[in-house]
Specification:
- By secondary structure, this protein is of the alpha/beta class.
- The protein folds into 3 domains: 250 residues, HUPs (Rossmann fold, 3-Layer(aba) Sandwich); 164 residues, Ribosomal Protein L25, Chain P, CATH 2.40.240; 116 residues, Beta Barrel (Ribosomal Protein L25, Chain P).
- It is built from 13 helices and 27 strands.
- Helix 2 packs across helix 11, helix 7 packs across helix 8 and helix 11 crosses helix 12.
- It binds adenosine-5'-triphosphate and magnesium ion (MG).
- The site of adenosine-5'-triphosphate (ATP) has 17 residues, from helix 2, strand 8, strand 10 and helix 9.
Length: 563
């Protein structure tokens, strides 16, 4: 067994105790059970890290099981994306890929068993009536008039349900438990309903489909799961989970344990809501870099390592909370700071002409690739008479405290020379600055003066004739308000969408080496943030870069101020 390195949260404490007591003969088996009705999101990564993490720490295994019991909402596209995302996050289910639908025959047999034992009945109340009979939190429920049907009649009706003789909604199979139970889930819950829909795996074999509560516990028990870890909202379903397993001759009885979901400020985690964003065209798809999906995060340039670190940092607890999105961004920066190559890219170019630099001269200047990584080496970048700097790095009329380039003032060009601004050429009609004329000091090669002369500003730049053009996409949060993740089911979250979550800059200029940029590699554009090649829209002659995250770290500031 591998050593348990993490401090023990309450779930790991339970597993440790179980192993000590030789419960489950010392086995540990968990599962990650996504419903293939959407892409995985950052919240799921907590469950993935927890289930796969516990299995590996305690010498067990973790299954991947698709909870595919609702044919109307599920799709093979989701089945595939979910597998890709889990692998990307760094986990492996080996040969243990299962589907709840693999157990449909077994579930049907168990349902027959419940009927034969007088613990299930076919009910002809419609959905509205069932809701009415169920009662409320404060009011006990009423028994269905169909509850006393004979076993024979129930067997025959259930058989006819399966054969497709009844229309959707005309009847269901229900467990006979207790209509007066204080737990509404125990008031004769539905076991099977009729859905005349094609299933992505079982085709048209079935027209009755098991409900989640019935399917889930049976799937767990069939696979021999020891610890069935799920999120907090299933706490009130636990008595039902246990009831089914207690009635049926299942091979084992897994323990259901609930933990709090991971939610973030400024975004949403509900698949239903994310699907709306996709369907209504507010984003370009499930993998839009603004989406909190793992596919979106990957395309944006977030790393699996940073997401796993985040899950470690937030830990596992039993009370719901919303994590500040700044913490996620902090984890991304920490990881990229170690890995990303430092390069120069000018997002909003302003042409600078160095009048005293020889017209056809090109120098190859040396630049360090990553000061955080001594093994990353250096590279050569071309310098010539015409360069671009950021429009923001020049002011004709500098306000107080502005230390960048302005008429008469000298700044450093990173890795290059000191330059001093002498004049400005403007568009006669619009007044827009067309180009800035400077002189350079040849004695300051590398960006350092030999006479001790200091400058306050340092700008990044690219050589105009050597640079490549690229599109750069900058992202802001999808939602305007901080509490987007917490809002009520009933409120319309669409109203709080951020209309400016995407800014596209078409004519950015990048240092020439970025022609070779590959997807999956992160770059720090000096002073601008971390960027990566867009895996979908980038073309060799029309590169597109995404900003993963800016350099400003609000979380680090919060931490510092608390010390
Ligand atoms: P949604 O409400 O977004 O549709 P879900 O819970 O229905 O999510 P599933 O596909 O059933 O999505 O989730 C698979 C597993 O991931 C479940 O065990 C679920 O509890 C867990 N999970 C879902 N959302 C989160 C989250 N925000 N944080 C942690 N775990 C989560
Ligand atoms: Mg679910």
């Amino acid at each position: 067994m591998s050593e348990v390195s993490k401090s023990l949260d309450f779930i790991r404490t339970i597993v440790t105790e179980d192993l000590k007591n030789n419960k489950n003969n010392g086995r540990v088996m968990t599962r990650f059970p996504p419903e293939p009705n959407g892409y995985l999101h950052l919240g799921h990564s907590k469950s993935i890290c927890l289930n796969f993490g516990i299995a590996s720490e305690f010498g067990g295994v973790c299954n991947l099981r698709f909870d595919d019991t609702n044919p109307c909402k599920e799709d093979i596209e989701y089945v595939e994306s979910i597998q890709e995302d889990i692998k990307w996050l760094g986990f492996d289910w080996e040969d243990r890929l299962y589907y709840a639908s693999d157990y449909f025959d077994q579930m049907y047999q168990y349902a027959l068993q419940l009927i034969k034992d007088g613990k299930a009945y076919v009910c002809n109340l419609n959905a509205e009536e069932i809701r009415h009979y169920r009662g409320t939190l404060t009011e006990s429920g009423k028994e269905s008039p169909y509850r006393t049907r004979s076993i024979e009649e129930n067997l025959s009706l259930f058989e006819r349900m399966k054969r497709g003789e009844f229309e959707e909604g005309t009847c269901v199979l229900r467990a006979k438990i207790d209509m007066t139970s204080p737990n509404i889930n125990m008031r004769d819950p539905t076991i099977y309903r009729i859905r005349k829909a094609e299933h992505h795996r079982t085709g048209n074999k079935w027209c009755i489909y098991p409900m989640y509560d019935f399917a889930h516990c049976i799937s767990d028990a069939t696979e021999g799961i020891t610890h069935s870890i799920c999120t907090l909202e299933f706490e009130i379903n636990r008595p039902l989970y246990d009831w089914y397993l207690d009635q049926l001759p299942v091979p084992c009885h897994p323990q259901q344990i609930e933990f709090a979901k991971l939610n973030f400020t400024r975004t949403i985690m509900s698949k239903r809501k994310l699907l709306r964003l996709v369907k209504e065209g507010h984003v370009s798809g499930w993998n839009d870099p603004r989406m909190p999906t793992l596919a979106g995060a990957r395309r944006r340039g977030y790393t699996a390592e940073a997401i796993r670190n985040l899950c470690d940092m937030v830990g596992v607890a039993k009370s719901n909370s919303v994590v500040d999105i700044a913490l996620l961004e902090h984890c991304i920066r920490e990881d990229l700071n170690k890995k990303a190559l430092r390069v120069m890219a000018v997002l909003k170019p302003l042409k600078v002409i160095i009048d005293n630099y020889p017209e056809n001269q090109v120098e190859e200047l040396e630049a360090v690739n990553n000061p955080e990584d001594p093994n990353s080496g250096t590279r050569k970048i071309p310098f010539s008479r015409i360069i671009y700097i950021e429009q923001d790095d020049f002011r004709e009329d500098p306000p107080k405290g502005y230390f960048r380039l302005s008429p008469g003032r000298e700044i450093r060009l990173k890795h290059a020379y000191y330059i001093k601004c002498n004049s400005v050429i403007k568009d006669e009609l619009t007044g827009e600055i067309k180009e800035v004329h400077c002189t350079y000091d040849p004695e300051t090669k590398g960006g350092w003066s030999t006479d001790g002369r200091k400058v306050k500003g340092t700008s990044h730049w690219v050589s105009a004739p050597h640079s490549i053009e690229a599109e750069v996409r900058l992202y802001d949060y999808l939602f305007l308000d901080v509490k987007a993740g917490e809002e009520e089911e009933t409120s319309d979250f669409m109203e709080r969408l951020n209309p400016n979550s995407l800014e596209i800059l078409k004519k950015c200029r990048l240092e020439p080496g970025l022609k070779e940029a590959k997807t999956g590699i992160s770059y720090q554009f000096l002073r601008q943030g971390y960027f990566c090649v867009d895996s979908v829209d980038s073309l060799p002659d029309k590169p597109v870069f995404n900003r993963t995250v800016s350099l400003r770290d609000t979380w680090a500031k919060i931490e510092k101020s608390q010390k």
